[in-house]
TrEMBL record:
Required co-factors: Mg(2+); K(+)
Protein role: Catalyzes the dehydration of the S-form of NAD(P)HX at the expense of ADP, which is converted to AMP. Together with NAD(P)HX epimerase, which catalyzes the epimerization of the S- and R-forms, the enzyme allows the repair of both epimers of NAD(P)HX, a damaged form of NAD(P)H that is a result of enzymatic or heat-dependent hydration.
Any matching Pfam family: YjeF_N
Alphabetic keyword roster: ATP-binding, Isomerase, Kinase, Lyase, Metal-binding, Multifunctional enzyme, NAD, NADP, Nucleotide-binding, Potassium, Transferase
Ranges for domain YjeF N-terminal: 10-210
EC number: 4.2.1.136, 5.1.99.6
Protein's name according to its UniProt entry: Bifunctional NAD(P)H-hydrate repair enzyme
Molecular function via GO: ADP-dependent NAD(P)H-hydrate dehydratase activity; ATP binding; kinase activity; metal ion binding; NAD(P)HX epimerase activity
Domain YjeF C-terminal, first and last residues per copy: 217-469
The species this protein was found in: Actinopolymorpha singaporensis
GO biological process assignments: metabolite repair; nicotinamide nucleotide metabolic process
Catalytic activity annotation: (6S)-NADPHX + ADP = AMP + phosphate + NADPH + H(+); (6R)-NADHX = (6S)-NADHX; (6R)-NADPHX = (6S)-NADPHX; (6S)-NADHX + ADP = AMP + phosphate + NADH + H(+)
Amino acid sequence: MRTAHSVVQIRAAEAALMATVPDGTLMDRAATGLATACVDFLGGAYGADVVIVAGSGANGGDALYAGARLARRGARVAAILLDPGKAHAGGLAALRSAGGHVVPEDEREDAVARADLVLDGIVGIGGKPGLRPEAAAVMELVERYDVPVVAVDVPSGIDVDTGETPEPHVRAAVTVTFGTHKVGLLVDPGASAAGVVHLVDIGLGPYLPDPVVESLQASDVAALLPAPDRTSHKYTRGVLGVVAGSDQYTGAAVLAVSGALGGPLGMVRYVGPDEPARLVRARWPEVVAGEGRVQAWVVGSGLGDAPERAEDVARALADDVPVLVDADGLRHVLARCEGEVLLTPHEGELARMLEVERSNVTARRLHYACEAADRWNATVLLKGATTVVASPNGRVRVNSVGTPWVATAGSGDVLSGICGALLAGGLSPLDAGSVGCFLHETAGVLASRGGPIVAEDIAAALPDAYRYVRAAEGT
Ligand SMILES: NC(=O)C1=CN([C@@H]2O[C@H](COP(=O)(O)OP(=O)(O)OC[C@H]3O[C@@H](n4cnc5c(N)ncnc54)[C@H](O)[C@@H]3O)[C@@H](O)[C@H]2O)[C@@H](O)CC1
Ligand SMILES: Nc1ncnc2c1ncn2[C@@H]1O[C@H](COP(=O)(O)OP(=O)(O)O)[C@@H](O)[C@H]1O
Ligand SMILES: [K+]
């Protein structure tokens, strides 16, 4: 499990750990891990030009100490000090004694233009969102000369606790983070600014409380996956009822059922108009058409906006089993939910539900997913490159695996099917949403291999994704 903590939690854990170790130990561990990650990134330090952009706090200190290590390994290291009078004294002395130097103000552009790598030590967890004008000016040069950035702890300027980026911020190729992940490294748009995140263990683990955000890894998913045993039969494995599609949107029915059949359940019942029902049965002869007992419902994909389909959603929600509501069905979830409910909007749908601009949801994904979970008393899965799954009891998971090739028409219908299958298999809405999303994105990666795919390809690769995560069990 990848876990992320808040700044307040991290500060408290650091204080507790620091009381047990000699002064400077944590910064030494951080700088060692940071320098190693830079060497990996550069493919060796010798002869490389490295520019450190250092603010006045300990984040700048980490960068300067790491710079000293790189200088001792043969890199040419130059530091741009944003506030020369207040630069981290120990870090600066270490850099100087290792042969590094401070860049005079009028030579900043030349130094950046030559650099193979920029280390962003502007601010870490002590920073307010945004960059002060001087830092912003240096980072503009970095972007102009297209120099790759390794961010120290966090890309400076993001809101560390939310992943929001309302103001200018650093865009990193790699972020080397210390002790634990920060929420803003997992949730977009902060996650995109962080690039590849590398965690350095500084010994914080025993002092950290429960995380505010979790991110499942393959072995966590494997541990949660239902699997049949010798006593299983189709009804004990779970039956999913799919209410999807309309005469206008027949494909949604086929795709939602495809996603469901790619999951670990015993049977799918399809409930819907004649034409989509005919197409579903032609494609999947194992599907039973018509109502019957189910262990969970998926309702909503491709229902269209006809007001009479509200009845379908209401009937599913009134049944005493878990319900997933997707797409058009979300229009009809008006009251607070009872029982186990998973809502799966994309940003546009969540914006409509909450009556806010879509751009607000894009900017504040964690905030609005949690707000909706609270308002509807349901688990809310907000789709996107880093899908957020927020439960009404405050637990939040973020999915970080996947590929943008998964963003293709009908992909969300497949997701509703696989998540529904997991609900029918007995998983809670939080587990079904986060495990389903992991399988769906992993299937996308396996199917795509870097090229275009359609939604059916994702569904067809779900059993392979299942096998892939089972192979990671115990790792
Ligand atoms: N506390 C610890 O035990 C450890 C801290 N470490 C490092 O220390 C960092 C936290 O250090 P600090 O608490 O000194 O804080 P930071 O270095 O994150 O930032 C604080 C400084 O930045 C300035 N600042 C704030 N917002 C700014 C903005 N938007 N633009 C420009 N300047 C801004 C403040 O005036 C202050 O001087 C961590 O992120 C990590 O890199 C690591 O060395 C590991 C151990
Ligand atoms: N950039 C991205 N990277 C990875 N997955 C993405 C990205 N953008 C969207 N997705 C995923 O693609 C799917 C799209 O679903 P949705 O928006 O409902 O599309 P549709 O309505 O066409 O089915 C979701 O699972 C979403 O998380
Ligand atoms: K930083």
